[in-house]
Amino acid sequence: MTLTLTDNSGNSSTCTAIVNVQDNTAPTAICQNATVVLDAAGNGSITTADINNGSSDACGIASLSLDTTTFGCADVGNNTVTLTVTDTNGNVSTCTATVTVQDNTNPTAICQNATVVLDAAGNGSITTADINNGSSDACGIASLSLDTTAFGCSDIGNNTVTLTVTDTNGNVSTCNANVTVQDNTNPNAICQNTTVVLDAAGNGSITTTDIDFGSNDACGIASLALDTTSFNCSNVGNNTVTLTLTDNSGNSSTCTAIVNVQDNTAPTAICQNATVVLDAAGNGSITTTDIDFGSNDACGIASLALDTTSFNCSNVGNNTVTLTVTDTNGNTSTCTANVTVQDNTNPTAICQNTTVVLDAAGNGTITTADINNGSNDACGIASLTLDTTSFDCSNVGNNTVTLTVTDNSGNSSTCTAIVNVQDNTNPTAICQNATVVLDAAGNGSITTTDIDFGSNDACGIASLALDTTSFDCSDIGNNTVTLTVTDTNGNVSTCTANVTVQ
Hints:
The chain is mostly beta strands. The protein is 5% helix and 45% strand. A hairpin with a 4-residue loop joins β25 (317-327) and β26.
């Protein structure tokens, strides 16, 4: 633009200037909420048109943009998005809106048939993994459930089960499958030995009741049968008989029993007490010879057996053991004895040296953990103790301490270690100002006493020293001096003071 200037005599001049016109007003950003329903693949999106609700600017809108436009299964629920509005002159405003993401698609339920073989107790079960054959959902499966998972003998044959598939957003689908229940378990044949005493004619007999000792099958027994039921003199001694057990599904099992004649007398079991001293590893043992004290049988002893032969630290004290005596015809007797287990082995005490740095008050401590370096005992450590745990200034240097290690049986050992006590704390230097009046010869002096104002150290002050003690006419006025304080262990501190020379 041009400016014209005219004076009182009509003379005029002109000049020109640049006027820069600016638009600094931000546009008005107006948002609206939106809803996104995910597709079968679990995806959804929005555009600025879905969120913009009439944003405006006097000079015009240049662009609209969103910080988020695509959504997936992880976004189900409310999501905050920001709309950025830019006008034609670069001014920017923003507003936010809520985008509600919904998953309304049911999962795909796919079933497969399964076979359940009942166990020995007549029970069987399935899990969803047995029936599920790849059920899926874009947003993920939250749960699989079956209306029936447990089966018993009454279910032998075909059974229909329903699989319910629920996705992570509560949508549900179902499918059916056939579960074939089978009983393939042989019955449990349990035999017991028996004795037959021949009659006067030399004859005797048994029934299945004499041999059966609780044979069973979860789904029921159909029949019991023996291969031999009659005996005579030619059978004196041990005879093997076979019991055949058949269940309601046609499965069968057998067991054998001994039919024995004449020897029903149990041996005589006689025990004696024993003592076991554990070795250094905490172990000890006994044999039947240590416990047997003359056990006998008229027909001879076939075997001796102990229920416990090995002992360790957990057995220290009295332990009851049982000796089983078996004769040559299988008759058994037992007796008990007391085995006293002793731990007489001292623990291994292992020490390590350590260093204690005194605190500002001149004190320091240690614990057993500082000295113990892996002390051990096969039967365990009961306690660790030190003869000295506290130190002060009088202990600066090397000190010998003793660690006592006691095991769980009261055995103890000791070892020693060096505790190096150190005073690393500098003394506290405290100064005060002083005045020196020169004598007639123009000389004057101070001592540390004039400057020291209570310097101290927990372990004691060894020396005080000044860098300047003498003054003359050239020093009239203010002078700075340094006091050096050294403690008994060589630690040093300094402070300064003003000496006024008059």
